[in-house]
Amino acid sequence: MTRRTPLLLQIAPGDPRPINRQIVDGVRRLIASGELPVGAALPSVRGLAQQLTVNPNTVAKAYSELSAEGWLDARAGLGLFVAPPRQRLSKAEVERRLEEAVQRFVGDVIALDVPADRVLERVADELAQLAPKRSA
Amino acid sequence: MTRRTPLLLQIAPGDPRPINRQIVDGVRRLIASGELPVGAALPSVRGLAQQLTVNPNTVAKAYSELSAEGWLDARAGLGLFVAPPRQRLSKAEVERRLEEAVQRFVGDVIALDVPADRVLERVADELAQLAPKRSA
Amino acid sequence: MTRRTPLLLQIAPGDPRPINRQIVDGVRRLIASGELPVGAALPSVRGLAQQLTVNPNTVAKAYSELSAEGWLDARAGLGLFVAPPRQRLSKAEVERRLEEAVQRFVGDVIALDVPADRVLERVADELAQLAPKRSA
Amino acid sequence: MTRRTPLLLQIAPGDPRPINRQIVDGVRRLIASGELPVGAALPSVRGLAQQLTVNPNTVAKAYSELSAEGWLDARAGLGLFVAPPRQRLSKAEVERRLEEAVQRFVGDVIALDVPADRVLERVADELAQLAPKRSA
DNA sequence: GTGGTCTAGACCACG
DNA sequence: GTGGTCTAGACCACT
Predict the structure, then answer these.
(1) Distance, C-alpha C57 to centroid of its chain
(2) Do A77 and D18 touch (CB under 8 A)?
(3) Would residue B108 count as lying in a domain?
(4) Model confidence over C64-107: pLDDT tens digits?
(5) Domain membership flag for residue B70
(6) Are residues A76 and A26 part of one domain?
(7) Distances in Å between the alpha carbon of A2 and those of A43, D15, D78?
(8) CB distance A48 to A10 below 8 Å
(9) Kind plus residue range of the DSSP H or E element containing D55
(10) Same domain, B62 and B101
(11) How far is CA C26 from the centre of its chain?
């Protein structure tokens, strides 16, 4: 059980986010959307590195971040697995980070002269697409 | 009406954004909200740097970015002025950047396990607060 | 203000903890004990690396972990600073981690055939020595 | 009284400790609590490996560690048996290890902002629960 | 100068 | 085979 699945994860060269960030976001999304269920095994560090043609250290760093954030559990010699969901951050910390993300996002978007409705619509679409099977 | 006004701009040491980003965002916001009308003169690089107690290079870089984005026009020997509104980016480019910002934002927010409604509400608030009297 | 102080931090070659862990623990301790007050600047990555004669990447990793945990704020081009205290983790997560640490500690110590009183005494000493000027 | 008893030992997949560590801790605990009396035979490497569905190498390594620490004695051709109590480590070595464990534990716990009383209480509970009928 | 990211290649413990 | 750590050296954005 929990066979390793060829992860549907891609690195976009044009994406301004650093590679390690793209991996973290991608995996988080797969977990949040339920595509990677609790207990599922992730591709090995070396395996994913090869698949994405990036350095293994880069993948390792991303995985390690995800573990620190509580999304993954690492077992030396066995591999990495999707961790059971848990409320990691205090309400205050969640609030702080949400505020930060919103500030940054609006700062980015305001420069584009896009009507507020369209922005909200796009965000709503993207959030809906996650089909939050996991988040509370 | 091109008098140099003491810019209502502040640098927050606690703000996680780099200083140059704070300046760019701040000026863009002042323009978008109409507080800096078309044709208004901006403080000199040295002046603003002194006012904010930051490195002049940082201010220069921020101004240069704002000019490149079409928010400011340089008049040789006179300084920088708020440029008349125009389509500063191609529609495709706007789409690309919007997409990017949304992806990043959702990537950040997904980690927080916040209900989509609350996220949208916060974004809407923040967008509204900018009172885009100028942007279309 | 916030002059960089030659950090009272040492790497013990005999210590079984990896170097990066020793740095993280050491800095956390200095912050928790109040020896590094809020806003204090930390030695630069390269500087500390030289002082400890370890690779800068190792220090960078430790610092990055401390930032992720909310103990430090990093400002590119400026350096790292002790962050204002905040309740980062949910009560449940704190409980989980405390449980884990206790389990591990007792597992280590039970093998030593040391009377429980002595163990508790040593832990109490060590905790008291932190003079919790910062923790709530 | 040297009959092989079906060992009351379990491997928890969720446990963050590596498997070999879980075995070592488990056996030590059984000996310390007297559930495995002096002279008792331990399950064979293959037997325990099968029972726990882990790699025999892992069990062998755990047993070898326990022997090195003086908890088990090997009788050639017969298997492993619980060794009579003795001073397994020099006093200095015990002190060193205790010190190390305390340092690490406090380093972990300091990050959690938990009152010292609660920490001590939890440690005392856990130590008491081991009911050291055997250790001095 | 600062921190952040990436690559390359090595060694270790675990299974 | 697995993940984790460390070193070495490079490039980037920011100040």
Answers:
(1) 18
(2) yes
(3) yes
(4) 999 999 999 999 899 999 999 998 899 999 999 999 899 889 88
(5) yes
(6) yes
(7) 11, 18, 39
(8) no
(9) none
(10) no
(11) 4
Amino acid in position B11:
I
> What is the tens place of the pLDDT at every residue in D17-45?
899 999 998 998 888 888 899 999 999 99
CA–CA min distance B29, chain A (Å) = 8
The parent domain of residue A53 ranges over: 19-82
Q: Among residues A24, A132, A28, A136, which one has the least CA distance to residue A82?
A: A28
| Nearest of B93, B6, B1 to residue B40 by alpha carbon | B1
In this complex, the answer to whether residue C80 has its CB under 7 A from any atom of chain F, a nucleic strand, is no
**What is the total count of domains within chain D?**
2
The encoded tokens of residue A19 equal 């590679």
Residue C70 lies in a domain: yes
D46 and D95 belong to one structural domain = no
Tokens standing for residue D88:
């397994």
C-alpha distance from residue B43 to each of A101, B5, B36, B61, B72 (Å) = 30, 7, 12, 14, 12
H or E element in which residue B130 lies: none
The answer to whether residue A84 neighbours chain C at the CB level (below 8 Å) is no
B38 and B61, same domain (yes or no): yes
Same domain, C96 and C77: no
Residue of A nearest to C89 (CA): A89
Q: Are residues A101 and A62 in the same domain?
A: no
